[in-house]
Prior knowledge:
Strand content: under 5%
Helix content: 55-70%
Number of helices: 5
Shape: globular
Order of helices and strands: HHHHH
Largest sheet: none
Number of strands: 0
Amino acid sequence: TPIFLTALLLLAMSNATVAADGEKLYQQKACATCHGPTGNEPILPTYPKISGQNLDYLVRQMNDIKSGARDNGASVAMQALVSNLDDSDINAIAQYLSER
């Protein structure tokens, strides 16, 4: 139906906007400094490759690091960076990375 197709188009457009915002935030919030320009070139072999990961996984990891629920390994270094992200920022970055 036309209404359904319109809804699908609007959803696709909003997802593209979120992903674009996520790409911008990924750069602005210094994620690329450690994970590389595409998320798959970490500066240390112990840092994860994050591009192409599952959306929910990425959101959960960033939220766990932000809350302190995850405090192992290099996540301590990330805590200061993710502490400045709100839910919208986290979701946008996660969506951008999951679609790469």
